[in-house]
Amino acid sequence: MKRYFPALFIALGMLMAINQGVTLVLYVSEKGVPRGSDVFMPMDIPLYLLLLLKRSAPLPKKLGGSIYLARSLAFIFLLFTLVGEFIAVDKGDFRFAYVHLIRAVLLYYCVMTRLATRKECRSFAVGLMMGLGFQALIGFWQWQIGPVVLPFFQISNYWRAEGTIGTANAFGAFIISLLPLAFRMSMFIHLKFKPAWWALTVISAGALLASFSRGSWVSFGIAMSLFALVDFKKKVLTSKQTALFIAVALIGIVALNVKYGDVISHRFSGAERSISGREKHSRVNLAKDALRVISGREMFGVGLNNYRHYSDEQIAGTRIVHNAYLLITAEQGVFAAVLYLLLIGLAFLFGYQLLQVRDPFYYHLTAGSLTGLLALVMYNMGAPDYRLLPVLLQQWRALALPIGLYVAFHNEMHLLRNKRLLAERIRTMKKDGQSGATSGLANTARLRPGIQ
Predict the structure, then answer these.
(1) pTM above 0.85, yes or no
(2) Residues near 3 by beta carbon (within 8 Å), at least 6 away in sequence
(3) Angle CA(373)–CA(385)–CA(9) in degrees, nearest 5?
(4) Are 126 and 13 in contact (CB under 8 A)?
(5) 2 CB contacts (<8 Å, ≥6 apart)?
(6) Over the chain (452 residues), what is each successive 10-residue block's mean pLDDT?
């Protein structure tokens, strides 16, 4: 069965990008309107198979308690949010979002507990890149060629690329969560078909540009710049890699300015007004309205996906605060918001530990994952798209992957240490003339899972 686990991780990473499923009616309103949610999605197949058939990876001694803490906080977050079932104005909206939150937390648990080997980590990363390629190719096609029509998918074809996700801003958030990892894998990790990986990175970058999402652009640029500084400070790049990195960055910046400079500057022309304008739908006024909604409901909030029932009716558009942290506080309570911030902190804690290792594979996978997570953390300060399923799944995946990589790395180091100790013991026994004992010891070692 072990040989199938890498394939399941590939499938899980890839199918996370497919936001279509089987809908079940969970609530019928007083007006007779049915409300449902995707109780089954393609990604559920590898997710549940991994949870049911694969054992949890052994926890390292160092920070093992923090891993238990992360697991516990995630499920406490999920259970605490369930209070919304009893206080939500629209139970259909609550159940719709809660089903997706359950799936996201199970994904978090699976990634942080089931990744156990280098091959599984590589497989999951490849699967994520396949999912990114699917969405990015659709977005790139929409941008450069025209409308896309696929069976079983509801695709909106507007002037901004959206993939199959449905909104351009959420599409941009999806891309920035994975594009740093694509860049790291194509540039620093030994993979077959390197030109294909570079093509994936370029197409994904083009799809990000085509989303015309200002928040995604800014968050991605800042996160990539910060982790580039980390690389230079740690001197993990060779002179050739450093030169290539700088060349790619400069060529990209110059090409964007020449070809799309006017478009990009026009996109930012109304940024100040959208942030701090007098209109009620400006970011600042939306935040003030969110604080009004939170006031008096600090403990449990108004219920998941029920924010718009309490927001100012004079606000135009979606009437949802453009700040994911205020949105979580308003819908799930202050305690849930604190739990979520702690989970973000734990992800960066484990990521920081892995950034100290000399193994390029784990270093660059971790750096790519943390860059995507940092981009999402910043993006969420000015957008509400955390609530949308494709972004929600990538958010929780980004929280779990540094922990999963940390566990896999230490599990690998433990196995290597056991093999070295076994080899030394066999050499000692051979010197003492205990040939029969060494044969038995070697056979025993092959049977013990902790030694293989």
Answers:
(1) yes
(2) none
(3) 50
(4) yes
(5) none
(6) 90 93 74 76 96 90 90 96 93 92 97 94 96 96 90 81 91 96 90 90 94 92 91 80 78 76 71 66 83 92 91 72 94 96 97 91 95 97 91 96 95 80 69 54 42 30
